[in-house]
Design brief:
- This protein is α+β, with helices and mostly antiparallel strands and about 425 residues long.
- Helices cover about 45% and strands about 15% of the residues.
- The strands form three sheets. It has a four-stranded mixed β-sheet. A two-stranded antiparallel ribbon has the order 1-2. Strands 3-4 form a two-stranded antiparallel ribbon.
- Helix 9 crosses helix 10 and helix 13 packs across helix 15.
Length: about 425
């Protein structure tokens, strides 16, 4: 038998039985070739195996280009724009686009339309990424001195705002921003820039820094009072030039110093922090500063047309709880100022006793229920004395408390005493300030 050649050449031709060396073979079955050219066989003929092109190292044959008519190529433009064509079809369409102006214009229009169908993706990192990374690290190695739970929201919100600011150019730092709040039952506002907002946060966070024994960002600047608005105006007036991106570094360093210091205090957060005309315990002041940081970060993001997500549900719940606990005091102040609805008059109750109450139901992220005493800050909310019920989305309630939503326009589900509901909604807006 002639040896089999891996290059596909064997000693015998399958069809004619002719040998490569000129001999012939005969037989009715599987033949055998000999040097003299004759052979016999009795079994069925089995063809010898053939080597593939890949095994033989030979070049693969090139695929013939797809030849399509103009009408067919035009019908494929939609699929091409959606990246749904096969590779040969896409190559044929793209070659055709270089030769046909009308199809090239139509392809460009379809590609632009496809971009409108795609959901825009935020370039921001996932807000929960930082929390997940920290939790993973802390599971491996707990911190020697952890950040108190009541300061975690301030730590998170300042970090989120700093991440938003890090890629800003000069144009973004000078983008106009309008600070909004609610004052004397009416909307109030102040025009500034992104840098001006960070300067505002720097000076008002300074109240917490001073309470912790840190340096006051005002330095030698004298403010007429210790209130947030007075401190901010004094800082703005003392600046030789409008605030620039240089304000980011002292604000960031101060926020880091505040977080480090509260972690070392070992205090439960009861130390008072003065806001000029009122005081808050340190734990509530940190929640208040986290809330303001988020609200003004949204102001900045809106000014530069950038998406910004609300805080995590846990932190949002803490901010809502602080606002709900402050509402009875604001209601009492509005009554003293003659701003509350007279109605039938408040029912005086002893401190710590149950009184008329409004059920505040917050839906969605960070939600819950709070019973707001209506007649006295010292009274206790009571379900047995409930006279009204208000339901609001969590983020909507926070924007109401920030003065960004007028009370009359708050999308609230309401039931019960209308005057009590109006008083509570206006008191919530009255929590806001510059």
């Amino acid at each position: 038998m002639t040896a089999y050649d891996e290059n596909g050449e064997n000693g015998q031709n399958d069809e004619t039985g002719e040998s490569d060396d000129g001999g012939t073979g005969t037989g009715t079955g599987t033949g055998t070739g000999t040097g003299t050219g004759t052979g016999t066989g009795t079994g069925a003929r089995i063809p010898l195996p053939r080597a593939s092109v890949e095994d033989g190292g030979r070049a693969l044959p090139e695929a013939a280009p797809v030849a399509l008519e103009h009408q067919v190529l035009t019908s494929l433009l939609g699929a091409w724009a959606l990246a749904a064509c096969s590779a040969p079809e896409a190559a044929a369409v793209e070659e055709h686009l270089g030769e046909c102006d009308s199809c090239a214009d139509e392809a460009l229009r379809l590609r632009e339309a496809v971009t409108l169908l795609q959901r825009p993706e935020s370039l921001d990192l996932d807000p929960a990424l930082r929390t997940r990374v920290l939790e993973g690290c802390l599971e491996r190695r707990p911190p020697r001195i952890p950040v108190p739970e009541w300061a975690a929201s301030y730590d998170a919100e300042t970090a989120r705002l700093d991440a938003l600011l890090q890629d800003f150019g000069d144009a973004e730092w000078h983008a106009p921003v309008r600070l909004r709040w609610f004052e004397d039952d009416g909307a109030a506002s102040r025009r500034t820039t992104v840098a001006g907002v960070i300067a505002h946060l720097l000076t008002v966070d300074g109240t917490v820094a001073v309470g912790l024994g840190l340096d006051d960002p005002l330095g030698d600047i004298t403010a007429p009072s210790g209130g947030p608005a007075a401190r901010t105006e004094a800082y703005w007036r003392a600046s030789h030039y409008p605030p620039t991106r240089a304000v980011r570094a002292p604000w960031r360093e101060q926020s880091h110093s505040i977080v480090r210091t509260v972690a070392f205090t070992g205090d439960a957060g009861g130390m008072p922090v003065s806001y000029g005309d009122f005081e808050l315990p340190l734990r509530d002041a940190m929640l208040d500063r986290a809330f303001e940081c988020w609200v003004h970060a949204e102001d900045i993001a809106e000014a530069v047309d950038y998406p910004y997500a609300p805080p995590s549900a846990r932190h949002l719940n803490g901010m809502i709880d602080l606002a709900a606990r402050m509402l009875p005091g604001v209601l009492a102040a509005r009554r003293r100022a003659g701003l509350a609805t007279p109605g039938g008059g408040p029912h005086l109750v002893a401190a710590g006793g149950p009184g008329r109450s409004l059920r505040l139901e917050i839906e969605g992220s960070g939600g819950g229920e709070w019973l707001i005493p209506l007649d006295s800050p010292g009274a206790v909310g009571s379900a047995d004395h409930e006279v009204a019920h208000v339901a609001l989305d969590g983020v909507e309630f926070c924007r109401l408390a920030a003065g960004h939503v007028p009370p009359a326009e708050a999308a609230a589900g309401q039931a019960g005493d209308r005057e009590a509901i109006r008083d509570v909604l206006f008191a919530a807006a009255g929590l806001s300030r510059m």
